[in-house]
Amino acid sequence: MKILVAIKRVIDPDARIRLNADSSGVEEESVEYKVNPFCENAIEEALVLQGAHGGEVVLVTVGPEDVTQTIRSGLAMGADRAIRIEGVDTELDSDLVARILHKVVERESPNVILLGKQAVDGDNNQVGQLLAQYMGASQACFASEVVLEGEQAKVTREVDGGLETISIPLPAVITADLRLNEPRYASLPGIMKAKRKPIDVLTLDELGVTDTALKIEVLSLELPPERQAGSMVESVDDLLDKLKNEARVL
Amino acid sequence: MSEYYADLRDLRFTMFDVLNVASLAEHERFTHADAELFEDVLLAADDQARELLHPLNETGDRKGVRLENGRVLTPEGWTEAYKVFAEMGWHVLITEPEIGGQGLPHVLHVAVGELFSAGNMSFGFTPGLTTGVIGLVNSFGPQWMKDYYLPKMVSGEWAGTMCLTEPAAGSAVPDLKSSAIPIEGTEDAYKIKGQKIFISSGDHDFTDNIIHAFLARVEDDPTISLFLVPRERPEGDGFVFNDVTTVGIEEKMGIHASPTCSLSFGDEDDCVGWLIGERGKGLRCMFQMMNGARLEVATQAYGLANLAYQRSVRYAKERVQGAAVQDLRKKDAARVAIIEHPDVRRMLMQMKALSEGARALGLYAGYCADRVEVAVDEKDQKRWHHQLEILTPIAKAWASDEAFKVAELGIQVHGGYGYCSEYGMEQILRDTKITSIYEGTNGIQALDLLGRKVARGGGVMMMTMLNEVNRFLNGPLKDGDFAPEVAALSKARDAIVKTAMDFAQRSMKGDIQYSALHASPFLQMCGDLLVGWRLMEAAQVASKRYDARLQKIDVDPLDEELGNVLQDDEEARFLHGKVATARFFVHQILPRVHARLMGIESDDRSALMVQL
User: Fold this and answer.
1) Beta strands B179-182 and B189-200: pairing type?
2) Residue B22 DSSP SS3
3) What is the tens place of the pLDDT at every residue in A96-128?
4) Chain B window 67-96: which residues touch A at a Cβ cutoff of 8 Å?
5) DSSP code, position A19
6) What pLDDT shows up at residue A248?
7) Residues B31, A26: Cα–Cα separation, whole Å
8) Interface touch B88/A69, C-beta < 8 Å
9) How many Cβ atoms sit within 10 Å of the Cβ of residue B421?
10) N or C terminus of chain A: which is more exposed, having fewer CB within 10 Å?
11) pLDDT attached to residue B1
12) Active-site hit among B166, B439, B468, B537
């Protein structure tokens, strides 16, 4: 069983985000990065599946050299090795990432490809679906339970209004939801071992990705408006009036 | 409502940029500990402090531990968290790789200790004590003991404690009454009997077995021996209760979730212990554990102090109250956040300077411990060992005294809300207080500094320490922008040298009492000097980087809008803050050295003469 886990780093979700001078992107200087929380669920699930079925867990990400820190934290959790695709993480969109991953899948021929359902920075929720399309493989997104049975994966999905359980043939793309599992912490021995685990570095050329044009152009970003101070109302009638006529929620 | 914050930026700056800890990896002992590993471990510790430990902090404080049917029960969720924490291997971070530890540098242990303390101080006791007992057994225990006990403690399956204090033997450890009688037909087994009190983690539901490092006197020996006394002792294929009874747990001011136990050993005459180290050498062995533990107390203290500062500075930026002092007479003056008020800024700077100062000293002490281990020759080894000896009592006492004041200021900045429990500020104050009391009260630390460290060997340890300070004071900084600060530090050093000479002369004349009376102020003076020195070392590095940073972002240092630049540019703000903190410390806090000198020089003996 070979499991490929695509991971992404995001700016620390608890940190204050600042925009760069021309509002074309997020200020990246001296920010702290973390593994995207949904990706941690994907890594955890891969390790659980490996525990049950044996095999290898391979991490893959796209980014410059300093993304190695993020990779190491995944290796410290227990993944066996990693592949870093040289690239600038801000010069990507979901489609290009999916096409890059498709090439990695062709090289590695994994049985299962696990991803987080979305990254908490862009909130796009597209890479897993696009990758499945490029691969011509089955997909099961928003997984809250994964069971491997022979050449099939039985996946419980969190859909609107409840759960849906589907069975799909391997190889397949599965994207993790938060309730899939509780990601483990990296232990100290794990952290020390991670430093000795191999991280292959590939360029887009080496991988055979020639078309790097983006399909999405970001025009501008803006911060959410600052929260305004609330006001006190005199009576319940005033409150009802405001709810009806100002907020229009009643 | 109370939140966890850590200052990873300052931790990194102090370790990497000021101490250059990454250079430790050049030595064979620490080849695996490069900058990358430091960073990974630091981030992992920060995650665990925030996600695993801090959520248990408030309930731990409110609910505390309880004693039911002779066993201590910890609050809900604590046992599960302990298992996760122990599996991570945090308690064997500095333990030798040969027995399953990570063999990482002390300075990293100090760094993560601060984060765990800020996350949840009460949680740290059981792992911390286990580290100590592992060290004792590994250094002094017989081979069979290592083979049997170390794997279980290294894995975190069993925990440790240190049992020194007895009802009539607190600071005066040698007055203890516990006894050990050799069991005939055995080599190193003894019948143990005695009462121990104030035993942290003396009993709990984290582990199946608890291993006590126990001080007792064998028969009529004048000196004390050290024993390993398990709660459950191995017998045949299983275990039998080793007659260690939990008599009670203390109701305390703080650290409510840390079980502080009264234990009774050998009530039924069925308690067995095994000698660790040589008979009669127990105190010496125990001191190895104590020295490490004293540094850990310093990290506990400034971990909480820094947390108090982090919460206070955030609160002061949010809490709007009153108009700016320069606008008070204006009609309809805008209401401002309290951080705009000079008196609030004064308090915040005190908190920042004291907690960053204690951190700088603690990390430096940890770094000294590492340099001892990688010393290339005897001279080098002495250079670092002497400093560590001097620094241990100072870091412990100075950090814990000042941390309590920082905690108090934290309440003050929060005003009435600080006095209420909502923001968790009063818990910090209650938890911090113990740090000036246990592991040797700060009074004991002062006597240790004066009697065992400064006076010994003609003052060679103190001279080594001051040589390091002098090297800095005589360096290039004395003529530049920092000339006033260097001059002030030099004056403080002179005051300390003068005091030490004065004490030496008095003790030659047989006047021990006067020096003992002033030992604590002397320790505080030394702490002020050494902290000032460490903060100025940091300022020296920060100032260069600050200039480079302004150049990089193309800002004139005299720009009128500099305030706005600093607000927007985190890096410039941090570096500017390091310089400001050092200056503030040297000009606003360090001068108290001279007030203390005046007190000592006064020859005033009223505290000794008065009948109270």
Assistant:
1) antiparallel
2) helix
3) 999 999 999 999 999 999 999 999 988 999 999
4) 84, 87-90, 92-93
5) B
6) 85
7) 37
8) no
9) 15
10) C
11) 57
12) B439
DSSP characters over A172-220 = EEEEE-GGG--PPPPPHHHHHHHTTS-EEEE-HHHHT------S-----
Q: Which residues contact B101 (CB under 8 A, 6 or more apart)?
A: B89, B92, B93, B94, B95, B134, B154
* Best residue of A67, A77, A188 to probe chain B, by most B CBs closer than 10 Å: A188
Query: For residues B24-62, b (16+ Cβ closer than 10 Å) or e, as one string?
Result: bbebeebeebbbbbbbbbbbbbbbbbbebbbebbbebbe
- Choosing among 1.10.1520.10, 3.40.50.720, 3.10.620.30, 1.10.540.10, the CATH entry for B8-143 is 1.10.540.10
What kind of fold does domain B159-285 have according to CATH?
A: Butyryl-CoA Dehydrogenase, subunit A; domain 2 (2.40.110)
Q: Does B310 touch chain A (CB under 8 A)?
A: no
Tell me if chain A has a CB within 8 Å of the CB of B320. Answer: no
* CA-based nearest distance B595→chain A, Å: 42
Chain-centroid distance, C-alpha B188:
35
* pTM (global) more than 0.90: yes
Touching A: B residues 210-239, CB under 8 Å: none
Q: Do B87 and A187 touch (CB under 8 A)?
A: yes
Distance, in Å, from the CA atom of B273 to the CA atom of B265, rounded to the nearest integer, reads: 10
Domain definitions of chain B by residue range: 8-143, 159-285, 441-607
Contact B516, B523 (CB under 8 A): no
Cα–Cα distance measured from residue B41 to residue B47, given in angstroms and rounded to the nearest whole number? 10
Q: Does B522 touch chain A (CB under 8 A)?
A: no
Query: Closest approach of chain B CAs to the CA of A68, in angstroms?
Result: 10
Mean pLDDT per block of 10 residues along chain B (612 residues) reads 90 97 94 92 95 95 95 96 95 94 96 98 96 96 97 97 93 91 94 97 97 94 96 95 96 96 97 96 89 94 98 96 91 93 98 98 98 95 97 98 98 97 96 96 97 90 97 91 97 96 90 94 98 98 96 88 87 96 98 97 94 93
B321: its two tokens: 């109250």
The one-letter amino acid at A175: T
* Domains annotated on chain A, with CATH: 2-227 (3.40.50.620)
| Closest chain A residue to B31, measured at CA | A192
Q: CA nearest A73: which of A27, A30, A12?
A: A12
CA–CA separation, B220 vs B227, rounded Å? 16
Residue B96: active-site member: no
- Determine, for residues A185 and B92 on separate chains, whether the beta-carbon distance falls below 8 Å: no
